[in-house]
Amino acid sequence: MHLLDRRRIALERTVNALSGAAIAFAHLVALLVLWITNAWPAWALSLLALAWPAVFAFLLWFAIGWPAIDYRHWRYRVDHEGIEIWSGVIWRQTVTVPRSRVQHIDVAQGPLERSYGLATLSIYTAGTRYSKVDLPGLDHGVALGLRDALLPKDAEPAV
User: For the segment 4-29, what is each residue's pLDDT rounded down to a tens digit?
Assistant: First the structure.
């Protein structure tokens, strides 16, 4: 049983902080526009103004606290049969991908993942349900190693 790389917590905090800042700013701008245009009654604007600190506090908690909670609920195991991934804080799921179902595997890095040295392993399988399974938050070298380890060993070269 393996955990994701701990740097995923910092990456998720960065992503959530950027998203949260954009949402909080949009809420504030909407509040100001409504106030300037007098489009809503004063009591409605007062409620929105009182809601802004609550929204900001939730977004702050989501940026700082949630990534550590989410990190603790990701696990994966690779063996001779394939890979098994456990995830989910509220809705938990277990995905098992047998080696015989693996069609191809990608290792991807977005700009923020690259800056943290992390990658996402994407496993593509035959079928419709779970035809793509992602395992985010892996060290780039580990993701490349898993890619090589999960590819079927008896596959013939493509023509």
Answer: 999 999 999 999 999 999 998 998 88
- Any bridge partners for residue 153, and if so which? none
Domain layout of the chain by residue ranges? 7-69, 73-150
Q: What is the pLDDT of residues 115-154, one digit of tens each?
A: 999 999 999 988 777 689 999 999 999 999 999 999 866 6
pTM: 0.83
